[in-house]
């Protein structure tokens, strides 16, 4: 689907429904904080808003794990499917506890690319992620889903900080202002 077709589909959908927010989850405390922020501040069932609960699973790859080199392809595929089903099961339990309409998406692979691909192919108004809390140095080596999405995503990306980290930064900022 071309970018203009996606844009037109988004406009048509917006005319009949509320906003569509993709919240990327990874079973971390920070992604749980991001989800809580989305539920408290962004999506409202009375507005017809829709939440997309998105989780990327680790791709099972025989080239990344030497032990898998001796396992049949169908067993690797079955292991991958079990991982996806586990993620979907977790997302279903989250969906059961919320009041807003939610779509569940669990796919194997790199979350940075999977989220971008999903946004390009589906109407999404905003992406919300939590911080991983690795700091600047580690994110240089490991990459960061949030910083990648901020740089490459065609829709706004909201990065929800960890309150402990944010409080520490605010304390440091207040010390600078007082000086």
UniProtKB/TrEMBL annotation:
Q: Where is the UspA domain?
A: 19-161
Highest rank taxon of the organism: Eukaryota
What InterPro entries does this protein map onto?
Answer: Rossmann-like_a/b/a_fold, Universal_stress_UspA, UspA
Q: Which Gene3D superfamilies match?
A: HUPs
One Pfam family, short name please? Answer: Usp
The record's listing under SUPFAM superfamilies reads: Adenine nucleotide alpha hydrolases-like
The name under which this protein is listed is: Universal stress protein family protein
Organism of this sequence: Klebsormidium nitens (Green alga)
- Read off the lineage from the record: Eukaryota, Viridiplantae, Streptophyta, Klebsormidiophyceae, Klebsormidiales
């Amino acid at each position: 689907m071309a970018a203009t077709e996606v844009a037109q589909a988004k406009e048509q959908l917006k005319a009949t429904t509320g906003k569509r927010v993709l919240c990327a989850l990874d079973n971390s405390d920070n992604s749980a904080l991001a989800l809580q922020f989305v539920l408290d501040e962004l999506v409202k069932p009375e507005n017809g808003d829709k939440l997309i609960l998105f989780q990327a699973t680790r791709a099972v790859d025989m080239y990344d794990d030497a032990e898998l080199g001796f396992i049949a392809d169908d067993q690797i595929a079955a292991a991958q499917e079990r991982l996806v089903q586990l993620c979907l099961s977790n997302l279903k339990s989250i969906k059961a506890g919320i009041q807003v309409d939610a779509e569940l998406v669990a796919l194997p692979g790199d979350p940075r690319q999977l989220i971008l691909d999903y946004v390009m192919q589906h109407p999404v108004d905003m992406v919300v992620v939590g911080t991983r809390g690795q700091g600047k140095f580690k994110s240089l080596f490991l990459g960061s889903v949030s910083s990648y999405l901020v740089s490459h995503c065609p829709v706004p990306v909201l990065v929800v900080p960890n309150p402990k980290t944010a409080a520490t930064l605010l304390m440091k900022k207040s010390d600078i202002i007082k000086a």
